[in-house]
């Protein structure tokens, strides 16, 4: 039996330990891996990624919430917003910045 997961209904949240810093005009998140080796990495956020981070930080949210945030903030249709929202969630998960 194949289980289909409705990603729209999954509650996610931004890792509360992650903070944005502005360095030389760039909005970045600095990630530090645990362990003995220095595995620090930097994630730069563009304007829309920063807006999503700021609006959704501290709240549980779904993919639909991300879509709604994009359509409410920018002049973008829902289909484009959904594609962009999924890309944002995928990248944030890949970077370990979203929990859930």
Provide keyphrases for this structure:
100 residues; 3 helices; alpha+beta; three-stranded antiparallel β-sheet; globular; 19% strand
* Low-confidence segments: 1-6
Give me the number of helical elements. Answer: 3
Total number of domains: 1
Order of helices and strands: EEEEHHHE
- Roughly what fraction of the amino acids lie in strands? 15-25%
In whole angstroms, how far apart are the ends? 24 Å
Helix content: 25-40%
Count of distinct strands: 5
| Mean of residue pLDDT values | 84
**Rg estimate, integer Å:** 15 Å
Provide a descriptive summary of the structure in words.
The chain has three helices and five strands, in the order E-E-E-E-H-H-H-E. With 100 residues, the chain is of the alpha+beta class. The chain has one domain. The strands form two sheets. It has a three-stranded antiparallel beta sheet. Strand 2 and strand 3 form a beta hairpin. Helix 2 packs across helix 3 (78-94). 13% of the residues are buried.
In short:
By secondary structure, the chain is an alpha+beta fold. It has one domain (12-95). It has helices at residues 47-56, 63-73, 78-94, and strands at residues 13-14, 20-23, 26-31, 41-45, 98-99.
